From TrEMBL:
InterPro entries, per database record: NST/OST (IPR037359), P-loop_NTPase (IPR027417), Sulfotransferase_dom (IPR000863)
GO MF terms, alphabetically ordered: deacetylase activity; heparan sulfate N-sulfotransferase activity
Active site: 91 (for sulfotransferase activity)
Transferase recorded as keyword: yes
Superkingdom assignment: Eukaryota
Protein name: Bifunctional heparan sulfate N-deacetylase/N-sulfotransferase-like
Binding-site list for 3'-phosphoadenylyl sulfate: 179, 187
Organism: Oopsacas minuta
Keyword terms of this UniProt record: Glycoprotein, Transferase
Domain Sulfotransferase positions: 82-209
């Protein structure tokens, strides 16, 4: 059974449950058993493993049922979500663009996260998604008159990001920066040299391309 709270003030709730139990008990091949919420969750996610990573939706997004916003945590404001997403890709100047924008009084951005290269990466990190909406919103300053921006370059090519972003932030604006592919690849190579990648330090850029090592240049 779900939505127990919906039946709390319903005078027909007790009758409905009694009739349901009576109906089930009349069938000898059906056995009623009790399972705790954790046990039910374990059974469900073993049956539907694809649902382990949730699709978050802000209660404030519900235009048909405003009571969802009324019962939402008072410590978190519905406006504490970004209106602009800089989704990369990497080495296209998204960090520079963000730094220019936040120098203007109209914009502010998320707090830096040292565990993910200063980016939140909420929508592209399945582990991060499990932290929930409150955690995501806590990465941003409290609502003011500024426009909130999030930059996470990993959103660009993650297959689940479009659906996750659209579900939680349906009215956000997505900014993608395009750059000459050759210049971008060379910039990525230089980036890896700075971060002391073994391949980048021991091979030239031409050698990396000729030996198809680009896919091995990781952080």
């Amino acid at each position: 059974m779900t939505h127990f709270s919906n039946f709390a003030g319903d005078n027909l709730a007790q009758i409905m449950f009694e009739e349901l139990i009576t109906f089930v008990q009349r069938w000898p091949q059906i056995k009623l058993v009790y399972r705790s919420q954790l046990q039910l969750a374990d059974i469900y996610f073993k049956t539907f493993p694809g649902d382990i990573i949730p699709l978050w939706n802000l209660p404030c997004n519900s235009l048909l049922n405003s009571r969802h916003a009324d019962i939402y945590s008072g410590d978190i404001a519905c406006q504490r979500t970004p209106r602009i997403l800089l989704v990369g890709p990497q080495k296209t100047g998204s960090t520079a663009l963000l730094s220019f924008l936040v120098n203007l009084p109209e914009f502010s951005t998320s707090y830096k996260d040292p565990d993910s290269f200063e980016e939140i990466q909420f929508f592209s990190n399945s582990s991060g998604c499990l932290f929930g909406i409150d955690w995501y919103q806590s990465r941003f300053p409290l609502p003011t008159n500024t426009i909130l921006i999030e930059k996470s370059a990993t959103y660009f090519d993650h297959k689940m990001c479009p659906q996750r972003i659209h579900t939680l932030l349906p009215n956000s604006h997505i900014v993608i920066i395009l750059r000459d592919p050759v210049e971008r690849v060379y910039s990525w190579f230089q980036h890896q040299r700075v971060h002391r990648n073994i391949l980048a330090q021991n091979y030239s850029f031409i050698d990396i391309l000729q030996n198809n090592f680009m896919n091995k240049l990781t952080r």
